[in-house]
Design brief:
four-stranded antiparallel sheet; 757 residues; DNA binding; DNA_brk_join_enz; Site-specific recombinase XerD; three-stranded antiparallel sheet; mainly alpha
């Protein structure tokens, strides 16, 4: 029997041994751990061969039956599963010697050792004739049978097993007889479904047992025992006594050297992940978790702080100044505790890392906070502009540094910060108005085509796409939908209830009966998969035993790109279309606005805080603007109606001129209808200009202007300024006509109203 390595475990880490001994349960204290298909983490679905009882690892087959299927030439899989023997080679009764009555194991040519030697000594060449001539063997005192329960062969010589089982027992190093026998009898847990920890140091073995117990209790990510054995063998080869002997970086480098083909982190490696998981769990047991452990680290592990989604770490290791690093940690900890998202915390750390590089440059050489004054900040702003001008990150870096300096001053974290170390609004790059991101109707028609929607390989992602298109949710909010996300009002109309994570509140959006039926179908499907759990509506397909892990952003985005290529979605110019999930939200807002849905309703559907945000999402189409312009009542400076015939011979040209005028000659209270090629001869005299045109949307400005003009006239008459009063009286008269005309609902009364005034 192989003996374990032994070291004085009490000297490894003070107090750690006692914690591990108290924590590890008896079922995980064995040196060889065996796991069946029913284990939620180290098991899996049973082999598809009825009666096998092993874990199906490949195509639903256990390794043994998959190997047999390959050896037989890969026949029809369904037929193979229905006809093959569930028992595997090595776990079936062995054939006995060919001589009748002899129950010894076969050595060669179908004969036991004794009869094989007898045949060789006989000198007879025809084995079949020799066997037929022998009388049956009669043993008055037969030997004991093999210790393997299902093997009825006689033991071989002085071995406790038959010949074949005895040879295998010796090849395995003569392990404990009872353990060896049980290994054969338990057909559901072959060697590759076991984890052998005997080669590990005693303390390291206890740490590994504790990590496996934690992984088992988490019930979050499956891993095959064979993958665990790779990690165990790797640890045994390092000859360390504890996982805490190296930090995470050192373990990753050692793993990379041992398995160079697994070096890229983009390639999933369950063994590497288990190694780091095990070290973190042991460290957590030894030191605890939370801010007391993470704050002093240069890379905060956010999962150890209770953060389950988003970036896993916030790094400070590239901030070289100790004083800046301490202030950065204090600031970001405060922001996280006040509800800041982890993505924003990562951006904050990156911004201060950039500032640290600037401070360490030879031309700057700042080594204390007292040197960070306004002239230094202006130099940094110049460097940022040179490096990042025109990029979104430019403004983010300035904003994060501004908030950092503001927090130091507000909370009094360091009084040495100069009073002029401030950033002003003029320091931020000017934001240009973003172009509309709504998809063209030509593209949306292709995306909503049932034939194209049916080309989704995954029905879950097809439903996600429908929710994004019809409800305008953000992708993250869609992926977080609970299974009970459909609610009804008093009229039994369906609504989709979701959590707006950006605004940190619940919201409702109306849905149609078709979408409701598909959501209910999806809810039933996931509930059937996890009947005793409360899964999310769109659970992750892998590494999700309890259904609580939602599908990932990147998974949907990659699948969306593949779907677009598969459907050959193209724009009006025939080019392949690139679509982001958020563009569906812009498209819904734009559609609703152009269907004359009031902006307040659109704001509520999209769950925006302000109309300004809704206006950014939802832009009026040119045809909608024209339709409203033609419909609106338009008057000139004297209150007379101005008509724009939509079907006249000059309609298109007139509308083109009007479009340009709205864009370039908009006035505070109307529009200038003067052609762009002409220069206006009326300086600030629009209300007496024949080219002035206005509509009812400017009524509030006209009323306010009218009151101001009346006050000017009264003041001028009181001072005897007759000329000033006369000039403004014409403006007041025109304003009264404009207001009266725009307020009249009956178009037939417009001319009369203007004349009467």
């Amino acid at each position: 029997m192989t003996t374990s390595k032994v070291t004085p475990v009490g000297a490894v880490r003070p107090g750690l041994l006692e914690k591990l001994v108290a924590a590890v349960r008896p079922e995980f204290r064995a040196e060889i751990l065996a796991f069946g298909p029913d284990d939620p983490v180290l098991g899996g679905k049973p082999c598809r061969v009825t009666g096998c009882g092993r874990t199906g690892r490949i195509r639903g087959l256990c390794f043994g039956h998959d190997s047999r299927w390959r050896r037989e030439g890969k026949p029809d899989l369904g037929h193979f599963i229905a006809t093959t023997d569930p028992r595997m080679k090595g776990h079936q009764p062995l054939a006995s010697c060919r001589i009748p009555g002899c129950l010894r194991g076969r050595k060669e040519r179908g004969l036991c050792t004794r009869h094989h030697y007898a045949w060789q000594r006989s000198g007879q060449s025809d084995l079949n004739q020799w066997v037929a001539a022998l009388p049956p063997v009669v043993e008055p005192d037969p030997p004991a049978t093999c210790r393997i329960a299902y093997c009825d062969l006689w033991v071989h010589a002085d071995l406790p097993f038959c010949l074949t089982h005895g040879i295998r027992w010796k090849e395995q190093g003569r392990p404990d007889i009872d353990d060896y026998a049980r290994g054969y009898e338990n057909d559901s847990t072959p060697g590759h479904e076991r984890i052998d920890l005997r080669e590990l140091d005693a303390h390291l073995r206890l740490e590994t047992q504790y990590a496996l117990q934690c992984r088992h209790d988490d019930a979050a990510i499956r891993i095959a025992p064979s993958a665990v054995q790779v990690v165990v063998n790797f640890l045994a080869a390092t000859e360390v006594s504890s996982l805490l002997d190296h930090d995470e970086h050192a373990w990753l480098q050692a793993w990379k050297q041992r398995f160079p083909k697994r070096a890229r982190f983009s390639n999933g490696d369950s063994g590497r992940a288990l190694l780091i998981y095990a070290r973190r769990k042991v460290e957590e047991s030894h030191l605890g978790r939370g801010w007391d452990v993470e704050y002093r680290r240069d890379a905060w592990r956010l999962r150890n702080l209770g953060v389950e989604e988003g970036p896993a770490t916030v790094r400070f290791d590239q901030i070289s100044q100790t004083w800046l690093k301490e202030l950065a940690k204090r600031w970001i900890r405060w922001r996280l505790s006040s509800g800041l998202g982890t993505g924003s915390a990562t951006k904050a750390a990156l911004a201060l890392t950039s500032f640290s590089r600037f401070l360490t440059s030879p031309a700057v050489g700042v080594d204390r906070l007292a040197q960070v004054d306004r002239p230094l900040l202006e130099r940094y702003l110049a460097d940022l502009h040179t490096e990042l001008a025109g990029k979104k990150i430019h403004g983010e870096r300035i904003s994060q540094l501004h908030l950092f300096l503001q927090a130091i001053r507000r909370h009094g974290w360091d009084e040495s910060l100069p009073a002029n170390a401030t950033l002003h609004s003029e320091d931020f790059p000017k934001k240009g108005q973003l172009l509309p991101r709504a998809l063209a109707e030509h593209v949306m028609t292709q995306l909503e085509d049932p034939h194209n929607l049916n080309q989704w390989n995954d029905p879950d992602r097809r439903l996600i796409t429908l929710i994004l298109i019809r409800c305008g949710l953000r992708l993250g909010d869609t992926l977080r939908l609970a299974v009970d996300c459909v609610v009804h009002d008093a009229d039994n109309a369906p609504y989709l209830r979701y959590v707006n994570h950006k605004m940190k509140r619940e919201a409702l959006v109306p849905i149609d009966e078709e979408l409701e039926a598909q959501i209910i179908k999806q809810r039933r499907k996931v509930s059937d998969c996890w009947p005793n759990r409360i899964p999310v509506l769109f659970p992750r397909s892998r590494a999700n035993p309890d259904g609580s892990k939602r599908a990932s952003h990147s998974g949907y985005q990659h699948a969306l790109a593949e779907w677009l290529r598969r459907c050959d979605i193209r724009d009006a110019h025939g080019n392949p279309v690139h679509v982001t999930p958020h563009q569906y939200r812009h498209s819904l807002g734009t559609r609703l606005i152009n269907l004359d849905v009031p902006q307040e309703v659109v704001r509520r559907i999209l769950d925006h805080d302000s109309h300004a945000m809704t206006a950014h999402y939802a832009r009026l189409a040119d045809t909608t603007i024209r339709r409203h312009w033609e419909k609106a009542r338009k008057v000139n400076a004297t209150g007379q109606t101005v008509t724009l015939a939509p079907d006249g011979p000059m309609a298109e040209a007139a509308w083109a001129k009007q479009r340009i005028g709205r864009a370039t000659q908009a006035l505070p209270n109307g529009y200038c209808s003067l052609p762009l090629v002409k220069t206006c001869p009326h300086a600030n005299a629009c209300l007496t200009c024949p080219m002035f045109v206005t509509t009812a949307e400017f009524l509030p400005q006209h009323r306010h202007h009218h009151q101001e003009v009346l006050q000017i006239i009264s003041a001028a008459e009181a001072r005897g300024h007759t000329r000033q009063a006369e000039m403004n009286r014409q403006v007041a008269d025109n304003l009264e006509k404009i207001i009266t005309t725009l307020e009249v609902d009956d178009p037939g009364q417009q001319e009369a109203a203007a004349d009467a005034s």
